[in-house]
Amino acid sequence: MNLVLSLCLMALTSLPTSPPEAELAHISYLTDHRNGDNALIKLSTHPNPRIRAMAVLALGQNEVEQTFEQVQKVLTVDISPNVRRMAAFAVGQMKHALSEAVLLKRLKSEKHPLVRQEIWRALGRCGTQKTLRAAENAEGPDHPVAITNAGLILKRLKRNPSTFKHLTTALKHSDPQVRSAVYYAYFRASKGALETPILQAAVSSLNAQNASERESAARALSRGVDGGVKLLSNALQSNILLPHQESAIVQGLAKTKGQAANQLLLGILSRSLAKTSSSKRIVHPKFHVALGAARALRRRSITALQKETIKSLLQLAGAHEKADPVWIQRRRKVLLCALWQVLNQSNECTKLDVASYSRDPKLLTLLATHKKPAVRMAALASLNGIKKGGEVLKNALQDSDLAVVGTAASLLAGSTIKVDKKVWLKAWERAFSAANLEVAGDLLRAMASLKLKGTEAVYQRALNSGQIALARLGAKGLKALHGKAPALPRTSLPQNAIFDVDKYRPTAKKLTAHIKTELGTIVIRLHTELAPRTVQSFVSLTRKKFYDGLNIHRVVTNFVVQGGDPRGDGWGGPGYSLRCENNPMPYRTGTLGMALAGKDTGGSQWFITHSPQPHLLGIYTVFGQVMSGQRIVDSLIVGDKILEITIR
C-alpha cells in the first residue's frame, strides 16, 4: 500500500472510534453555511483530536482570511500529527499571503514524516521560487514529494534554470521514487518535447523494474519525443508497459513530426488491433492505444495511410467477429470515425464522432443545428478557428440549450469575433436566472476576456450573488474593467446546495460502492470521514437508482474516466450543488473524485483516475479509492454502460 495512504489511514484509525456526532454535525453545518468562524476556531482547540482535525480542515475549506492566524497556530503547537497534517493542508488551501512563509518555517522543525509530506504538498499549491530553492535541498523521504510539487510550481512560474538543473541531476538518484518524481515534474513543467538527456533517460526507464518510474517516464514522454523515435521503437517492443502508459507515448508521438513517427504510430495501431483473440472485451485493453494512434494519424492528414492499409487493418480487426461481434463492430466504427476523412466513408460514423473529428465547414455548419445538444457542441468545438465558423458560434449564444450556450461562450472567449453586447447580457441573464453556475461562469469568463464595456452591473451581481464561484469571477471581471479587483464578500452556499442538513449524521461505518459495468464490477471504498457530505449525496443518489443505466461519457487516456451525467454530455446533474470537501487524501491510481465546474458546484458526476494526479489535490474532492477492478476502469470507453451501483 502507498506510504502516504498508509500513514493517512493509520492517523485516522488511531483516533477514538466513537466520534462525537453532535460536534461533527455542527462543523458540517457551519461549513455548509460559510459562517461560524469563532465557533470553528473554538472547536479547533477541542480536547478530542478528531474534532480538532475536522474543525481546522473546515477553516481551510472556508478560506476566510481572518481565521488564518488560528490555522497557523494549530500547525505550530498541536500535539497530534493528524491535526497538524490537516492544518498544513488548510494553510496551503487558504493561499494566504503568508502561507508559503508559514509552511517553510514549519518545515524546519516538523519531525513527523506524514506532516512533512503534507507541508510539501501544500507548498506545491501556494509556493514560489523560495519553495523551489528549498526543494533543491530536500533529502531522504522528503526528496520525491519535494520534486513532485516543485513540478507543480514550475507549471505556474517561468522556467527556473537552477531547478531544472537539479532535476537533471536527480535523474541519477538511486531511489526510483525520486526518478519517478523527476519525470512527473518534467511532465507538468515542460512546454514541449523533452531535452535529449531527459528523453533518453525516460525511454530507458520504460523498462525499469519500478512501476511508478515506468508510469512517470511514459507520462513525461507524452510531451513529445522529437529525436527519440528510434529509441522508442525498441522500447515499445517490451510487454512491460500497461495500455495507458503506451497511450501516453502515443500522445508524444502525435506531437512529433516526421515519417519515422508516422510509421511507428502505424505499427502501434497494427499491433494493438492484433490483441483481439478473446470473446470478452475486458481482455482488449489495447483499444485506447489503437484509437489514440488512429486519431493521431488522422489529424496529421498524411498520405501514408492508403486505403489498402486501412482495409488490411480492418480485416485484421474483423477476423474475430464471430468471437465478439458487438465489440468488433463497435471498434471498427470508432476507428472509421477517427479516420473517416481518409476513408471517405463518413456514413459509417455516428454524427457525434464526425462532429468531433471533421474539419469540413459545410458539414460542421449542418451538424451545428443537429437535434442533439452533444452533437451541436462537438460541431462548435470543431468549427473553432475555421474560417466562416464565427457566425455559427455567434448564433449558438442564443441556442435553446444552455450547455450549447456555455460551449459557444468558452470558444468565443478572447476571440476577435464581434458579438453584440446585448446577446452576451441576455445569455448571462438566462443562465443566472436558471441557477446554472457552470454556464453563467463560462459567460462571465468570456465577457471578462473580451473586456466588454457596459458589463459592470453583471459583474457586481455576480460578486454579490452569495455564490463563491460567481463572486470570484465577478471580481475578475471588475478587475479587467478597472485594473483592480474588489474584496470578496462573505459567501454562503445557495439553498439548492444545502443537501439534507437536518438529517446529516456522520458515520464511522465503512461503506463500499460496487459499480457494475458491462465489463465487470469496480469496488470502491468511500471516505465517509473526510468527505461526509459528498459520500452522503452519492449514496443517496445510488439508492434512488440515479446512476443505473447511465453511460460513461468522458474518457481521457492516462487521466480519468468520468460518469454520473444523466444528459450524457458532461453538462447534467442531480438538480442541486454540493460544496467542496477538499481534503488531504492524495490522487493516486484509482482515486474517486467529484467533478466540478468551479468551487462548490459538485453534483452527480464523478471520475476515477487512471494514474496518479497530484495536481488535482485541493481542487476536486476525493471521496473514494478503488479496492478492486482498476483494470476495468482502464478498459472503459465512452458509451460503456453503468448497469447499476450498490452500496454495502
What distinguishing features does this structure have?
648 residues; alpha+beta; Leucine-rich Repeat Variant; eight-stranded antiparallel beta sheet; 32 helices; globular
| Uncertain parts | 3-7, 9-18, 276-283, 317-328, 340-349, 501-506
**CATH topology name of the largest domain:** Leucine-rich Repeat Variant
Major sheet: arrangement of strands: 3-4-6-5-7-2-1-8
Query: Cα distance, first to last residue?
Result: 23 Å
Strand content: 5-15%
CATH architecture annotation of the largest domain? Alpha Horseshoe
Rg from alpha-carbon coordinates: 25 Å
Extended strand count: 8
* Helix/strand class: alpha+beta
Mean of residue pLDDT values: 83
Shape: globular
Please give the CATH class of the largest domain. Answer: Mainly Alpha
Can you walk through the features of this model?
With 648 residues, the protein is of the alpha+beta class. The chain folds into 4 domains: 3-199, Leucine-rich Repeat Variant (Alpha Horseshoe); 257-349; 397-492, no CATH class; 511-647, Cyclophilin-like (Cyclophilin), CATH 2.40.100. Helices cover 54% and strands 6% of the residues. The protein has 32 helices and 8 strands. The chain has helices spanning 3-13, 21-32, 37-43, 49-62, 68-77, 81-94, 99-109, 113-126, 129-136, 142-156, 161-170, 176-189, 196-205, 211-221, 229-235, 243-254, 259-274, 287-300, 307-318, 325-338, 340-343, 351-357, 361-367, 373-383, 390-396, 402-412, 421-433, 437-450, 456-463, 468-482, 532-543, 630-635; strands at residues 511-517, 521-526, 554-556, 560-563, 591-594, 606-609, 622-628, 642-647. The protein has an 8-stranded antiparallel sheet with strand order 3-4-6-5-7-2-1-8. The longest helix is centred in the middle third of the chain and has 16 residues, at 259-274. The protein starts with a helix and ends with a strand. The relative contact order is 0.07.
